């Protein structure tokens, strides 16, 4: 992603955060952004997206349970992982469903 595309994506992210009729955090909570990470939170005030993955822990040979390991990523970190464009597309899909546009 080049500098221009990054700035456009950042501006789009901020614009989605200004839409108060749609709760993007709630709409995208638990959605997979790729095969490893799931959206666990979106903070439009600080431009942080929390992604998590499920970690299983074992008791010997068997799985005893699992927990979510979460990390917050700023927009630059999301872009470097290739997730910013995907997130914008997911938000655009939510907007289309909610508004019919």
Question: In summary, what is this structure?
Answer:
It is built from 4 helices and 3 strands. It has 101 residues and is of the alpha+beta class. It has a 3-stranded antiparallel β-sheet.
Task: Tell me what the structure shows.
By secondary structure, the protein is α+β, with helices and mostly antiparallel strands. It has 4 helices and 3 strands, in the order ααβββαα. The protein has helices spanning 3-17, 24-28, 75-80, 84-99; strands at 38-43, 48-59, 62-74. Strands 1-2-3 form a 3-stranded antiparallel beta sheet.
Question: What attributes characterize this protein structure?
Answer:
4 helices, 101 residues, alpha+beta
Could you tell me the radius of gyration in angstroms?
Answer: 15 Å
Content of β-strand: 25-35%
Q: Please, what is the oligomeric state?
A: single chain
Strand count, sense and barrel status of the largest sheet are: 3 strands, antiparallel
**Total E-strand runs:** 3
Report the order of strands and helices. Answer: HHEEEHH
* Helical content class: 40-55%
Distance between the termini: 27 Å
Mean pLDDT: 89
Q: Low-confidence spans: pLDDT under 50, at least 5 residues? A: none
How large is the count of helical segments? 4
Helix vs. strand class: alpha+beta
Strands ordered across the widest β-sheet = 1-2-3
* Basic shape: globular
């Amino acid at each position: 992603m080049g500098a221009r595309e990054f700035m456009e994506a950042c501006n789009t992210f901020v614009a989605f955060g200004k839409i108060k009729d749609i709760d993007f955090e709630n709409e995208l909570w638990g959605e997979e952004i790729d095969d490893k990470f799931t959206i666990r939170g979106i903070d439009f005030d600080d431009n942080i997206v929390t992604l998590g993955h499920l970690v299983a822990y074992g008791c010997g040979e068997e799985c005893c349970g699992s927990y979510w390991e979460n990390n917050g990523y700023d927009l630059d970190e999301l872009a470097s992982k290739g997730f910013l464009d995907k997130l914008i597309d997911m938000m655009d899909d939510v907007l289309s469903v909610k508004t019919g546009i």
